Amino acid sequence: MSDAYQTIRLQRCGAVALLTLARPQRLNAIDKRMLGELQLSLDEVERDEEVRALVVTGAGGNFSSGFDLKEQMETRPSGVDAWREILDRDFSTIMRFWHLKKPTIAAVQGYCLAGGCELALSCDITIAAEDAVFGEPELKFGAGIVVMILPWLVGPKRAKEIILSGADRISAPEAARIGLINRVVPPDQLESSALALSRHIAVIDPHLVQRTKQARSRRWMPRSTSTSRSRAKAATTNASSWRLRDKTGCRRPSPGAMPALSGAKMDNLGSLLTETCKTFADARALDDTDRALTYRQLSEAASAVERALVSVGLTPDVSHLSLQDLSGSQ
After folding, report:
1. Is 46 a catalytic site residue?
2. Three-class secondary structure of residue 330 per DSSP
3. Pairing between β-strand 315-316 and β-strand 250-251 as defined by DSSP bridges
4. 149-174, pLDDT tens digit by residue?
5. CA angle centred on 52, ends 47 and 57, rounded to 5°
6. Residue in 37, 136, 138, 191 annotated catalytic
7. CA-to-CA distance for 89 and 104, rounded, in angstroms?
8. Pick from 38, 96, 134, 95: which is nearest to 226 by CA?
C-alpha cells in the first residue's frame, strides 16, 4: 500500500489493512492534511479487493486528541460558508469509517478525545487498552460536537451528561460499562487483539459481511450538527426522484411475469406509499431538535416501501434512500 502519506501510515497485514494516525508530537491531532490523507487511504482500502477489514490505531501511545484547534486558530476561519466547509470536511471524513463497506476496528490506547473519540466510535468495533481515556471536551473550548454519534451508543441521557459537562476522563472500564466501546485488554495485547478479531472477520464471506454492515449502518445513522436542514431537503428530493427510477431504483420482472395485483394489495401499497411521502414531506418543516427522530422515521419509511414492493412481486433497491443523504457523507 502507499507510503506517500505524511500524517498517517497504511500497511497490509494479509487480508487486514492497518491504518495508524501518525502525528505523535501533537497527540495525533487531526489536521487538514490528515483529513485528506484519511480519505485517500480509505479509497485505497476500498479498491484493494484482497483487504477484508481495517484496523485503526494511533502512534506514540495515544489514539488522537481530536481535531487540531491550533491549526484552526492560525487560519482564523470566519463566516458561515468557511465554517460549513470545515465542518462538512470533518464530518464526512469521520463518517467514512462508518460507511466504509469493509469492517473497521479501532484499537485505542492513551488519549481518545473529541474528534478522535468520534472517529473511534464511528468504527464498527472499538477495542481499548486499560490505559485508554475517552471524552468529549469540546464545549470547554468553545467548540461543538462534529459527529453526534454518542447518543446512538450510550443513550440520550448519558450522552447529554458527557457532552454538556465536557467529560474528558472516561476510563476504559467505564467506557465498556456504558456501551461506548466493546472490550478492554492489556496495553501489550491491544494491537494483537484487534488484528486477531479482524482476521477472524476476514475469513467470512466478504459480500455477506459488507451487506450486513451496510444494512445496520443505514438503520442507525448518526447526524451532523451542521447543515442538517439542507440534508433533510436533499433526502426529500431523493424520495421524490425514487418514484421515477424504474431502471435503477427497482428491478422489474419481465412483462409476462408481472403479478396480478389484488385490490387489497393495491390498497396496502397505496397507503404505505402515501404515509412514506408524508414522512418525507414533514421532514422539511422540522427543527434541528427533532431531526434525530426524523432520521429514524425516514429509515422506517424506506423499509416500509421496500416491504410493500416485495409484497406485490417487485424487487426493490432503496439503497439510495439511505440516511447517508441526511448525514452528508460522500
Report:
1. no
2. coil
3. antiparallel
4. 899 899 999 999 999 999 999 999 99
5. 95
6. 138
7. 20
8. 95
